[in-house]
Amino acid sequence: MPILRLKEIIDMDSKERSKKLSELRAELSRLRTMISAGGAVENPARIRQLRRAIARIITIENQQKNQPEKTEKQSAKSKHAKTEKTAEKPAQAKEKKKE
Fold first, then answer.
1. What percent of the chain has pLDDT over 90?
2. Please, are residues 24 and 57 in contact by the beta-carbon 8 Å criterion?
3. Which of 17, 80, 87, 97 places its Cα 20 to 30 Å from the Cα of 41?
4. Which strand (E) or helix (H) includes residue 54?
5. Rounded to 5 degrees, what are φ and ψ at 23?
6. Contact, 90 vs 40, CB < 8 A?
7. Using CA atoms, how far apart are residues 60 and 12, in angstroms rounded to an integer?
8. Rounded CA gap, 48 and 63, in Å?
9. CATH T-level fold of 6-98
10. Which tens digit of pLDDT belongs to each residue from 30-75?
11. Strand, coil or helix: what is 93?
């Protein structure tokens, strides 16, 4: 069972995500310290869950930061692709059909 579901992370605002991220990192650090000190951890699978939750939060944060840039780049790419197709000579198009 994941600690945080993806939908919950997406619904959070940036401040909530950073707060949750610091909480999860602190808990992970505490568990790792317990292990390195030779103590037994009650739930060893919790470490994996924490690592994955941290990665999810960081990924969503980066996606939302880069989202406006991506849409601009995609529109520029699509315009460029259209001009390449129309600039193709008819003889080249026939050769491609033969292959």
1. 57
2. yes
3. 17
4. helix 45-87
5. -65, -45
6. no
7. 10
8. 22
9. Helix Hairpins (1.10.287)
10. 999 999 999 888 999 999 999 999 999 999 999 999 987 766 666 6
11. helix
